[in-house]
Specification:
9 helices, binds S-adenosylmethionine, Rossmann fold, alpha/beta, 244 residues
C-alpha cells in the first residue's frame, strides 16, 4: 500500500529551493524522456545499486533523496530484503509518477512531496541505506557538505550518489561543454524546445564537483570510506559509494 504524505515544506512560506521546484516542474516532461530513453544510464546505474543492495542479508530501510519517478529504485530494490522505502521529491509530477511506479511493491512505501534540504535538516529519520540520483549537484559545495553530514548522521550502513562529476583539473565551463557535446546527440526523443530547456538548466543550475571533490566531501562528512563504483559511457556521470 502506498501512502503519500504531502508536506508543507516551508510552513512560514519560505521555500528553501524555490528555483529548483520551478525548474523541475517545467522541465519534468523533458527529463522524463531522458530517463525513458536511458541516455543518462539509469539502467546500468540501477544495476550497480542493486548489486550492492543484494549483499544486504537483513531487512533494511531505504531513503531515495529526490526520487523522481522512482523507476531506478524500483528496479534496484527488486528481490532485495528492503522493508521500507522513503522517497522525497519537490516536484508534484514526480511524486505522482513514483506512486504509480511503486504501486503493489511488497514493501512499505512513504512518499514525501518536500524539499530534501529542509526534510533532512528538520526531520531526520534514521535509515539503513540512502541513495540520491542526479540531484545534489544543484547545491553549492558548503551545502553539499552540510547535507552529506546530515545523511551520514542518520544512516547506519551506506550512501550511494550518482552525480555529474568534473575530471580533476576540469573547470565548470569545460565540463558543461564536454557533457553537452557527449549528451546532446543522444537526446533524439526530445523536441528542440525541450533540448533548450535541459541545456539551459545544465548551464545555469548544475554545480558538479570534481571526482576527487565528491570523494573528499564524503570523507569530510564523516563517512569512513568513499569510492567510485560506476561511470556512465559518456564519462560525465559518476556513482559514488560512502560507507558509514
Ligand atoms: C534530475 S532529477 C533526478 C530524479 C531521480 N533521482 C533520477 O535519478 O532520475 C532531479 C530531481 O530532484 C528533484 N529535486 C530537485 N531539487 C530538490 C529539492 N530541493 N528537494 C526535493 N527534490 C528536489 C526534482 O524534482 C527532480 O525530480
Amino acid at each position: 500500500m502506498v501512502s503519500i504524505h504531502i508536506h508543507q515544506f516551508a510552513p512560514e512560506g519560505t521555500l528553501v529551493d524555490e528555483h529548483a521546484m520551478v525548474q523541475f516542474q517545467k522541465q519534468w516532461t523533458a527529463y522524463q524522456k531522458l530517463v525513458d530513453s536511458d541516455v543518462l544510464a539509469h539502467r546500468a546505474a540501477g544495476a550497480v545499486l542493486r548489486a550492492a543492495l543484494m549483499d544486504e542479508t537483513e531487512p533494511f530501510s531505504f531513503l531515495d533523496i529526490a526520487c523522481g519517478d522512482a523507476s531506478l529504485a524500483r528496479r534496484a530494490l527488486e528481490g532485495t530484503k528492503v522493508a521500507h522505502y522513503h522517497g522525497i521529491d519537490l516536484a508534484e509530477p514526480a511524486i505522482e509518477l513514483a506512486a504509480r511506479m511503486l504501486d503493489g511493491v511488497p514493501y512499505e512505501v512513504d512518499l514525501d512531496h518536500a524539499d530534501f534540504v529542509a526534510s533532512l535538516r528538520d526531520r531526520p529519520e534514521p535509515v539503513d541505506i540512502a541513495w540520491c540520483g542526479l540531484s545534489l549537484h544543484h547545491l553549492v559545495t558548503a551545502d553539499k557538505l552540510t547535507l552529506l553530514r546530515e545523511i551520514h548522521d542518520t544512516t547506519s550502513d551506506f550512501l550511494m550518489l550518482y552525480e555529474p562529476a568534473r575530471h580533476d583539473g576540469e573547470d565548470r565551463d569545460a565540463f558543461v561543454r564536454r557533457f553537452l557535446a557527449a549528451q546532446e546527440p543522444l537526446w533524439t526523443t526530445l523536441t528542440l524546445e525541450e533540448i533548450g530547456q535541459i541545456e539551459h538548466h545544465i548551464r545555469t543550475c548544475d554545480l558538479p564537483e570534481t571526482v576527487s571533490g565528491w570523494l573528499d566531501l564524503g570523507r569530510e562528512a564523516g563517512f569512513s570510506s568513499a569510492k567510485t563504483v560506476f561511470a556512465d559511457p559518456t564519462d560525465g556521470l559518476v556513482m559514488f559509494r560512502y560507507d558509514v
